[in-house]
Structure prediction request, 1580 residues.
Amino acid sequence: MISHPAYRVEPWSLPENGLNLDLLAQSESVFALSNGHVGWRGNLDEGEPHGLPGSYLNGVHELHPLPYAEAGYGYPASGQSTIDITNGKVIRLLVDDEPFDLRYGRLGQHERVLDFKTGLLHRSVEWTSPAGRTVRIRCTRLVSFVQRSVAAISYTVEPLGSPVRVVLQSELVANEQLPETDGDPRSAAALESPLVAEESFARAGRLRLIHRTARSGLRIAAAADHVVRGPAHTVLSSESSDDLSRLTVSARLEPGQQLHVEKFVAHGWSGVRSLPALKDQADAALAAATSTTWDGLCGEQAEYLARFWAGADVEVDGDPEIQQAVRFALFHVLQAGARAEERAIPAKGLTGPGYDGHCFWDTETFVLSVLTYTAPQAVAQALRWRYATLPAARDRAKQLGLAGAAFPWRTINGAECSSYWPAGTAAFHINADIADAVVRYTAATDDGAFDRDVGLPLLVETARLWRTLGHHDADGAFHIDGVTGPDEYSALSSDNTYTNLMAQRNLEAAADAVTRHPPQADLLDVNDEECAAWRRAAQRMTVSHSRELAMPEQSAHSTRRQRWDFTATGPEQYPLMLHFPYFDLYRKQVLKQADLVLALHLRGDAFSHGDKARAFAYYEALTVRDSSLSACTQAVLAAETCHLALAYDYLGESAMMDLSDLEHNTRDGLHIAALAGTWTALVAGFGGMRDHDGVFSFAPRLPEALSRLAFTVRIRDRSLRVEITGETVVYALTSGAPLEIQHYGLPLEVSLTSPRSEAVPPAPPGLPEPDQPPGRRPARRSRDAASAPS
Amino acid sequence: MISHPAYRVEPWSLPENGLNLDLLAQSESVFALSNGHVGWRGNLDEGEPHGLPGSYLNGVHELHPLPYAEAGYGYPASGQSTIDITNGKVIRLLVDDEPFDLRYGRLGQHERVLDFKTGLLHRSVEWTSPAGRTVRIRCTRLVSFVQRSVAAISYTVEPLGSPVRVVLQSELVANEQLPETDGDPRSAAALESPLVAEESFARAGRLRLIHRTARSGLRIAAAADHVVRGPAHTVLSSESSDDLSRLTVSARLEPGQQLHVEKFVAHGWSGVRSLPALKDQADAALAAATSTTWDGLCGEQAEYLARFWAGADVEVDGDPEIQQAVRFALFHVLQAGARAEERAIPAKGLTGPGYDGHCFWDTETFVLSVLTYTAPQAVAQALRWRYATLPAARDRAKQLGLAGAAFPWRTINGAECSSYWPAGTAAFHINADIADAVVRYTAATDDGAFDRDVGLPLLVETARLWRTLGHHDADGAFHIDGVTGPDEYSALSSDNTYTNLMAQRNLEAAADAVTRHPPQADLLDVNDEECAAWRRAAQRMTVSHSRELAMPEQSAHSTRRQRWDFTATGPEQYPLMLHFPYFDLYRKQVLKQADLVLALHLRGDAFSHGDKARAFAYYEALTVRDSSLSACTQAVLAAETCHLALAYDYLGESAMMDLSDLEHNTRDGLHIAALAGTWTALVAGFGGMRDHDGVFSFAPRLPEALSRLAFTVRIRDRSLRVEITGETVVYALTSGAPLEIQHYGLPLEVSLTSPRSEAVPPAPPGLPEPDQPPGRRPARRSRDAASAPS
Prediction:
C-alpha cells in the first residue's frame, strides 16, 4: 500500500497531520481553493513561510518573447505565462512584539482540514511565541462557487494562559517576490514584478488595488472589506501604496477574549474595461459578498456542493484511501472547471504555476470527460472558450498551410505558444480531442443550442483540418503522415492509430452535425462535396496493424523499431526525458504514456476484444509512465481485459498522484487530469462505462479488494446511479425520464420507478498478467496480488 | 545563358565591370582573399562604403548562450560565432580637404581584377572630388599562401590634372561597427564589440593592437609595418588607442608625382599563449614579411599558385564562362583550405560571416573530395583538425548514450552548437562523411602515417558510433532508425539509404584499418569481436527499396508518402523553408537537395545502372534545390545516366552560384561547397571519375556544348592528366610512377612515357529527360537543348 502520512484518511475531508515545512509547497497545491475563475493556493494566512505564493485569475497572463537559437517558419514568437495576481489571503499577526511565524517559537498544534462537502478549508493553530506567549488561531477560508469573484476568510485569535497584545494586518499585496526558477532568463525577467500599479486605496476596512500587466495589457483589480469584532479599545487603521493596501487591527486580549476578523475579497480582470469600470466591478462583487455575510457565503457553498455530490459522488467500499482520494479528485476537478466560464481549464487548474498556466489536450480528453457526467455546464463553458478562440485557430491553420482550424497545443489566450514543434504543432490530435469532447457532451446532454452554435462550427473546422492534413493514397486509403500522437516519447510518425481513429470520429461527427443543422452549416460554407469528402476520408481511414503481431500498432511500422534497452536503464534514469535525448526516445519502442491504449479506450468500438488484449499486453511492456496521463487509461484497459488486480494498482497510482506526490512536482500545482483519471479508472474501468455513438454502456467488474462501488452520472438531465457489488449491479435512475443503457451489450431501460438489478458475468479465465518494463510496475495495491512489490 | 554583367569573362582572372554599390557586399565575398588562416573580405581600401566589413582568423570565435524556450536533454548550451578580428585593410585617403569616398564626387574609372595565377587582387580608380580634384589610385592586395600570418597591400596615389595635398591614414581597427542583423538579440549582444583591448602601439610605420575575446578567452594580435615613398616633405606620424592604431602620411603631389605605400600586416591568435608571446609571434611574422619585401611576397604567391595549377587546372573549351568559373571556384576552394592547418574549413571559408563561421558536413563531402585530388596536404590538415576534436566528439557520443564519437553538426571549436536537433544531432551521417573523407584521402595518397595516426582512430570511433546507433532485427538485418539524411526537407526517417550505405563503408573501412595497424588498434581497445560486429553490420546493412517502383528509395517507406503539391506552390514560395513549416516539409515527398542521388554518386558501387536511372529520374521530380549543395550532385548523376544537356545545366548552376548570386546570399560569404561542386560536376560528371575501393575509374562523355575538357588530378604522388574531346580521351601521367586506372570498367596502365588514348563509347539511346518540379528546372545552358528556357 502507498502511504501518505501527511494526511489522515477520512471519507469526506482531507485532514493534515501536523505541519511539515518540507512539504509546504505540496500542501499549498493540495489545499488550494478555486472556483475555476479565482484560485488561491493553500498558503499559510500569515504569508510566510511559503513554498510558492499563489493567487490566480483564470486568463490573466503576461506575454514574453519565445527565444529560438535557430528560428523556423511558423514558430510562435510570443509566450504566455500565468502570473500571480494581487494576493488577498494575507493576514499577518503580531503577538506582543513578535511576528507569528511558525519557523520560530513552539508549535503546540496545527491542523488543516479541507472539507469536500462544505468547500471550506479550516485551520487551527496553537503557538507559543519565543517570548512564551501562547495563542490559538482558528481560521476558515473559502473561494465561492456561487459568487465567482469572491473569496473570504474568517480569522479568530485568542490568548491561552496570559493576556497578549495582538496586531492583525490584513493585506492586499501585489508583485510578491517569487522564489527563483531555473527557467529561461528572459521569461523570468518578463514575469518579475509583472504588475504596474494604477490605483491603490484604503479607508477603514475597505482596501483596493488596481494594476495592469505591461505587455498583455490586462487590468486586474482586488478589493477587500472587513468585519472586525474585538474587545473594547480595538483600534483600526488602514493605509495603501502602489503594491500594498492594508488594514491594521490592534487589540489587547485577556484570556477568554477573542479578536475576530472576517475578510471578504473580490477579484476581477479585463482586457478591455476601463479603470473606473473595473473598480466598480470589484466593488459591486464585494458589496454582494458582504451583504451575503460570511455565514451566507458558507451556506451557499454547502448548497452548491450538495447539488454537485448528488449527481457526481462515487462510493468505494473496501479501500478508504481510494474513497477519500476520489472525492478529493472530484472536488478539485470541480474547482478547476466550475466557474471557468469561457476561459481555459489549465493543466494545473488554478492551483499553481506549473506548465506556465497553460491548457493542453488533457482538458478535453481527461477532465471534460469526467465533468460531462458530473458537472456538464462546466463542459459547455470550456468548449465555448475553444469556440471563442476559433479565429486564432483558423489563423494558425492558415499559417500552417491547412484548412479549417488548428487549435494550439498549449495556450492561455488561444494563440499557440508551444515552441517545440515536434511535440507541439505536430500533435494535431488535440483538434480531434476537442471534437470528441463536443461529441461526448452533446450525446450526454442533448444540448441542442450548444450543438448548433458551438458544436457544429468546432466540428466543421476541425474536420476541415483533417481533410487537408491527411491524403488518400493511390488505393484510396486515407493516411495522416508525420504527426505526433499522445505519447511524447514518440513523434512525427505516420498513421498514428489514436490520431487516425479520433480524426475518423471527428470527420463523421462533422458530417452528422451538418445534417442536423443545414442553415448553420450553410453559414460555414459547408457543401455536399465537403461532407462527402469527410465521410470518405473517415471510411477509408488507415488503422495501422502489425501482421506479425496480429494486432493494431501505435503507428505505421512502429512495432518493427528497436525496443528500448530497459535492462540497461537504471531507476535513477527516470523520467527518461531528463536523461536521454529525444532522438533516441523517438526512434525506439518506449512509451511515456498510453497512446494506442488510449485509442483502445476512447475508440474501443473500433477494436475486437482479442485486439485489445494483445495490444494492451504488448504496450504494457513498453510504457514507463513518465507522464501522469497514463495510469488511469491503463487502469481502464486492464479492467476491460480482466487484469483486475493490475487495474486496481493503476487506480491507486492515479488516485495518489498528488496526495503522495508521486511525480515530485505537486508543488507546482495539482495534476488535474490525473485526478480526473481517478474517476475514470473507477467508472470506466471497474464500472466499464463507455459512451460510443450516444450509447451508454456498462460492463462492471470489481477487483477483489473492493466490496462495493457506487457512482452517479448525469446523462441527458437524468441522474443514473450504478451500484456494483461482487456479483450484482443495480442501475437506478434518481431523476429524469426513462433511459436506455446497455449492460454487457444488452439493452436495458431504467426508469425512476424501476431500478434494474443485473448479474455481473464471471470473469473469463485469466490471461497471464502482462509485464511492465523492469522497475516500472505500478506499486502493488491489491492485497490479493499474485506477486510481491518489486 | 545565365549572364553576370558584374564581371567580364576572362580565362585566368575575374575583372569587375565598374562598381555597382548595390552589389558591394556580394563583391566583397567574391573578391575575398584568404589562405585558410587569414581572411580579408574584398572591402574597399578606404573602409567605406561597405556591405560587411570582414577580417577573419580561422578558429577565432566568441561564445554565446543558446536560448531554448523549452529545453531538452543534450541540447548544446553554448553557441559559437565567428567574429571580426582587427581590420588591417583600411587605408583612408584625404584629397585636399575631402575624404575619398565613392558615394561622393565623380568616379571616372573603377576596376578590380582578381588574378587566379598570381593570387593578387588589383584595383585601379580615377576619382574626382566634389571640389574638382582628380586622383588615380592603383592598389594591389594579397593574403600570402606562403607566409600564413601575412597579408599585404601596395597602394599608390597620384594627381591627374592639378596638384593636390593628400593624406593617407593606414590603420588597424578593432571592434568595427557591423551592420545590424535580424538574429537573436542575445547573440547580437554577445557579438557586438567582442574584443577587449589589451595593448595598442604605434611608432613611425609600426602599428600593433592586441585584444582578447571576453568569453572564449582567445587573444588576437595584429601588427603592421609600412614602406612609404613620396616626394620631399612627405610627413609621417602615428598614434594609437584601444581599438585604433594609425599611421598618417601627408604629402603635396604635383602631377607626375606619386605617393606610394606598402603595408605589411601580420595576424595571430592563441587560446593559450601569453600577451608577450603573441606579440612576439606577430612581430616575427611581420619581420619575415618586410624582409621578404612586397615583390618577394608577390613572387612567392605566384610560385605557390603555379605549383597548384600544375596539378589541379581544369580546361574547358566551348564555354568561356564555365572556364572562368571553374578556375574561380578552384582558387577559392584552395583559399579556404590551403593553410587552415588543424582548423576547420567553414562553409563560407573565410569570405564572410554566414552560418556563423561554422563548419558542416559539406567540408568533408564536397570540399575535401576536390582538395584530395588537387591539394591533398590541405585534406590531411582538415582531417587532423577532426582528429584533434575527437575528445569532444567522444563526450558528445557519451552524452547521447552512444559509443565511439559523435561529431558535431556545426561547430568552430569542435563542440556541437546546433540547437535544432532534428536537423543537427540527428544528422549522424556527418560521421560517415568524415570517415569517407579519410578513406578517400588514404586511397588517393597512400599516406601511411596519416592512415595509422589519424585515419585509424577516426574510422574506429565512427564505426563504434554506428554499431550502437543501429541494430539488427530479428532476421539479422541491420537498421538505423530515426536519423536525418542529407536532405533537410526530410528528417528522422529510418534506413536512410545515404546514411546506411555511408555507414556501411565506414564500418568496413574501420575493420580494414584495424587489420593494417594491429598495435595502434590495440591502443584503441579494438578486439576481434568488435571488428566482426562491424563487418556483420556492414554485410547486413538495410538498403531501402521500393518494390512498386523497382528502385532504391531515400528511406524506408518514403516513396509512399504524399507528394508535395508543386502546382499549388508559387515561385515566390521558394525557398520552401521560409514559407512552410518543417512538419509539412518533413512528412511529404519533397527534397531540398540530393539525398539518395548523392548516395548514387558516392556509393555508386552499390547500385545497378538501371537503379540509378530510375531513382535519378524519380527524385528529379521532387528536388527543388533550395540548397546550394544539390546541383553538382545532380550534374554528376545526370551525366552518368546520359542526360548530358541536363548535366550541363546543373554544372552551370553550381558554377554560377556566387558569380550570379543565385541564392541571394553571397553577401554573407561564398558557397565553398557549391564552388567545389563545379569541379565535381566537370570531373566526376563529364569526366566520370570515381574512386570506389581505391580504384580510380573514368567514364568520360561531354555535352554537345563542350568541345574539350582537360583536367589534372593528383593521385598517389602522381599527376594524371585527362583530356577529353568528342570521341577520344587521352590519359597521360605528367609525374610519378605508372598508375593503374579504369576506362569504362577496363583496366588501363598509364605511365610517364605512355599516355593512353581511348575511345569514348557512343551514348546509349537517350531516355526521356526527367522532369523537375514546375518552375524548378535549372536554367537552360545548352544551346542544343530540346526545349526553350521556362
